[in-house]
Amino acid sequence: MAISSSLGYLAVGLADGTVLLYRHLDQSIFSNSTSLSNVPKPRVVHESPTEPITGLGFREPSEDNPNIHLFIVTINRVLVYQVSGKGSGGTPTVLEDEVGCGLGCASMDWHAKDMVVARDEAIYMCGKI
Question: Which residues pair with 124 in a beta bridge?
Answer without folding.
Answer: 117
